[in-house]
């Protein structure tokens, strides 16, 4: 036990010329420091490792299905009636109803994902769940559940305030006028002639294109089915609902429709999905049904019927047959991401390397010809930079930096760097422009249309390069320096960085700082000090860190929220890289104490509040893998240091 004088170095930067301020404020704090007992840390690490090993599949990989909300199951329940599969699905309506009634909030709303920092849910989530309950037989007039939900929806603006994606589904049932939904020009799906210059697949994000095709088809054809009052939501309109209209006489031709169907069919993946997603697959099935009814003589019939069967099997699997993920809204498979995280956590915590060689072989098996590693099944056509980076970091951690799989992966990652120095998830230079933003504005409130560089991915990727021995000292091409400059330019005046794929500023710091340190950045530089200064002030009284989904829209929530294991681990990962420079012993010990105490209490780590980002300000995800892995990585590094 010792007394230590600690100081927190605060650098007050001038936002105009970005130089050190003339004075440095020292905050002196006399603290009674007791280093956290090593034995307790080691015991938790060993227990967490055993937990991971018991969850391994086929001695090679891990699966922790990420989910986006039961409202997607509600949507599926309703749409099954439109595509005439209500008697074919294995969806248990009674179980779904039980989940919906259990999770409704007092104000009548539902949350899309767990969010302890919010008192109310979202309008779109509530619309879908209300709709499903109505179809199940809940009386909108006599049921208190329905009355409260309707009141919430109307208070938030009614169906008119819903996201565009929701309005598409509403319009298919006659609950919204197609003409009140923005039009998607069909010329962006031409691959021939002058119009090929606007071919959407070459410009929008990987996740957009599979949804954009069926959305364009349904909007151009005004697909509408009247299934009766049970499916009607007229009571949720803020203003008087107007009847839907039919396409004008100068609408799309049969050849236009056939082109759209061909575009859908050509992107179907081996597992049956269209682009790897359940929603795009369900959308496509609706389009196929409509097309066959319009053109019963089509030569596409056999292909469409086969494709529909495969797509339906894919949807049923992810929505209803994913174990712990069932009925939670699993929209895609992410086993390679889960495996990369878990393998890295085990490698960091000194798991027997022999037990991890089959995981190396697993990555080698699914590595694509270009060197990239995908996010999950049916993503093979679109490898992901983040998955590839973490897999590389894992393999280098166990001494395989000269492995052929690693070399191919690093070469691909290097080729994927954007012109601004950063990296995006799936493609190069897909950050969009004003013309593309205008063309895709119809669904801007439903998804992010582009795939720009982001700090979190860039941090993970340079950490992979640094772990494999590539840094600013031997960076002959200057690509590492370009990445560093990108991260530096993305920093806000107060020191924080925004993340794209995790919540949010804390996630960015936990990715950027280890990456910067690994490639040789001097952490004494003022901009690094500013980043540390910001995150230190976000520690909660319980020693943990948390951040709300609200932080993307409201600055006051930046780095603020109920503590979670994952977000605490991200902050700890940042601190550990600079602890010798900034004397963060107190902050580190408190974060470690939070993680250890929580594990000892529950025999595991669980994020009670969402920590993943699907689309900023729009849609969020819960990644169960995160709480199993990031705290273990952080504690293992703590023990080493």
Explain the overall architecture.
With 641 residues, the chain is mainly alpha-helical. 46% of the residues lie in helices and 4% in strands. The protein has helices at 38-54, 71-82, 93-103, 123-136, 144-155, 164-172, 209-221, 254-265, 278-294, 301-320, 335-348, 357-366, 385-397, 404-415, 434-439, 455-467, 479-490, 505-518, 526-536, 565-582, 585-602, 624-640; strands spanning 2-10, 25-33, 612-615, 619-621. The chain has a two-stranded antiparallel ribbon with strand order 1-2. It has a two-stranded antiparallel sheet with strand order 3-4. The longest helix has 20 residues, at 301-320. The two termini are 18 Å apart. The model is unreliable at 1-34 (pLDDT under 50).
Q: Could you say which overall geometry the principal axes of the C-alpha atoms support? A: globular
Radius of gyration: 25 Å
Helix percent reads: 40-55%
Terminal residue distance: 18 Å
Count of strand segments: 4
Total helical elements: 22
Q: Give the topology string: H per helix, E per strand.
A: EEHHHHHHHHHHHHHHHHHHHHHEEH
> How would you state the average pLDDT, rounded?
92
Strand content: under 5%
Biggest beta sheet summary: 2 strands, antiparallel
- Biggest β-sheet: strands ordered side by side in the sheet: 1-2
Structural class: mainly alpha
Weakly predicted, low-confidence segments: 1-34
Protein traits:
two-stranded antiparallel sheet, 46% helix, single chain, 641 residues, 22 helices, disordered N terminus, 4 strands, mainly alpha
